[in-house]
Design goal:
By secondary structure, this protein is an alpha/beta fold. It is about 30% helix and about 25% strand. The longest helix is centred in the first third of the chain and has 20 residues. It binds flavin-adenine dinucleotide (FAD). The site of flavin-adenine dinucleotide has 43 residues, from helix 2, strand 10, strand 19 and helix 11. GO terms for molecular function: (S)-2-hydroxyglutarate dehydrogenase activity.
């Protein structure tokens, strides 16, 4: 069946605008080849299902999955019994195991969350309690001098050591998951956008178009699909676009679609430094919208600082489906980084920060609102058979990816 669908996908460019779109029945469709979509596709394929992954980009992982801190989080920050807490803890275990078994570069380097003033110590104690309740093992409160002995460049009054935290090469991870999914029969179709859909009887009809046809689209006037897919299961894992996309699914009640907010986070790298000043991940106390400007190391030992939080708006559908977000890093933002970083790294030299890259958080709550959990909806929530929506998969989505996949397959496969 999939072979036939593929032929139709390849034929798409020859379909004239006036011709009605061909319709094809398929087993499972995953929208979005970010780390979460890929992990879901692999899991469904391992369960013996025929899977087609559609991504508007030219390859996998061009969205948030390649624009993050690449940290394997332990599961400390999230409210007890939240999906973030459960999937982070489970996902971390699955991820370390997968990386070890598949030679995906990773390193369990551990993390220090630091209080730089006595005023912050109660918050550190809360994090310790929360993490322990979430099932994070090995957390240990350190006196400032103990932490500064481990990290001589660090300045702090107390620190929470999380030995379970680590780093991973996210590109290698996605490459490995894609390979495994393909070996189990999954097909990836790139430059292929989902532009809408409708519910017909018991089945979601999903409208497909070549991404190049969206280039000059105003996002408002009707766009003729070139192919309509009728899957038994469709997983909307379109990341930043997930809410905007299903607003175009006729038959899904809008009350189930959460408002989308976007928070850009910029990174700066440390220039002209031969030896990395830190061996561990160093995090300040979390701030509104993010985890604070922290220190991350990559697997080559290069240091980067970030991400900060900058709320952005004015995102239209075309921009979002084609990942045309503004990912530029304004060098002036460094001015805000220096004082933040110097709270825990006082010897940071003037002029040593260089603009690096930016990512955008797919958030479900806005500035000064309480953080919202991951939202995973199936028919039991919204009443549309075979449709699974993944909304607000921000941090710790990379860490959680394999646990989300496990959950989606266990709960929604019919
Ligand atoms: C600054 C920042 C730092 C982070 N740091 C960490 C961290 O250290 N650890 C951690 O665990 N998590 C972290 N995260 C979170 C993590 O990166 C994300 O949760 C994860 O990458 C989300 O993956 P995804 O597959 O859901 O989305 P994405 O990677 O965004 O993938 C979505 C895909 O959908 C495609 N798409 C969109 N619209 C359409 C359409 N209409 N049709 C077809 N395809 C479409 C896009 O092209 C894209 O490839 C961070 C996030 C940010 C922004």
């Amino acid at each position: 069946m999939l072979k036939h669908t593929l032929k139709s996908l390849r034929r798409m460019s020859t379909t004239t605008a006036a011709a009605p779109a061909a319709k094809e029945k398929v087993d499972c469709v995953v929208i979005g080849a970010g780390v979460v979509g890929i992990a879901v596709a692999r899991e469904l394929a391992l369960k013996g299902r025929e899977v087609l992954v559609l991504d508007s980009g030219p390859t996998f992982g061009t969205g948030t999955s390649s624009r993050n801190s690449e940290v394997i989080h332990a599961g400390i920050y999230y409210p007890l019994n939240s999906l973030k807490a459960i999937f982070c803890v489970r996902g971390r275990e699955l991820l370390y195991k997968y990386c070890s078994e598949h030679e995906v570069p990773h390193n369990q380097i551990g993390k220090l969350i630091v209080a730089t003033r006595p005023l912050e110590i109660p918050k550190l104690n809360d994090l310790m309690k929360r993490g322990t309740a979430n099932g994070v093992h090995g957390l240990r409160m350190l006196e400032g001098f103990e932490a500064m002995k481990m990290e001589p460049e660090l300045q702090c009054v107390k620190a929470l050591l999380s030995p379970a935290s680590g780093i991973v090469d996210s590109h290698s991870l996605m490459l490995s998951l894609v390979g495994e999914a393909e070996n189990h029969g999954t097909t990836f179709s790139y430059n292929t956008s989902v532009i809408g859909g409708h519910l017909e009887g018991n089945c979601m009809n999903v409208y497909i178009s070549e991404s190049k046809n969206l280039q000059n689209w105003d996002g408002v006037s009707p766009l003729q699909p070139e192919l309509t897919l009728i899957p038994k299961l469709v997983v909307n894992s379109a990341g930043l676009s997930a809410p905007a996309l299903v607003k175009r699914f006729i038959g899904l009640d809008n009350v189930f679609i959460p408002p989308a907010y976007y928070a850009r986070g910029c990174y700066f790298s440390l220039a002209n430094t031969k030896v990395a000043p830190f061996k561990h991940l160093i995090y300040p106390i979390p701030e509104d919208g993010g985890l604070g400007v922290h220190v991350t190391l990559d697997l080559d030992g290069q240091i980067k600082f970030g991400p900060d939080v900058e709320w952005i708006d004015g995102i239209d559908d075309t921009l979002s489906f084609l990942n045309r977000f503004d990912y530029s890093v304004n060098a002036n933002r460094a001015e805000r980084f220096y004082p933040e970083i110097r709270k825990y790294y006082p010897d940071l030299r003037d002029g040593s920060l260089q603009p690096s890259y930016a990512g955008i958080r797919p958030k479900l709550s806005g500035p000064r609102q309480s953080p919202i959990d991951f939202v995973i909806q199936g028919e039991d929530t919204h009443g549309v058979p075979g449709l699974v929506n993944l909304f607000g998969i921000e941090s710790p989505g990379l860490t959680s990816s394999m646990a989300i996949a496990e959950y989606v397959a266990a709960k929604f496969l019919r």
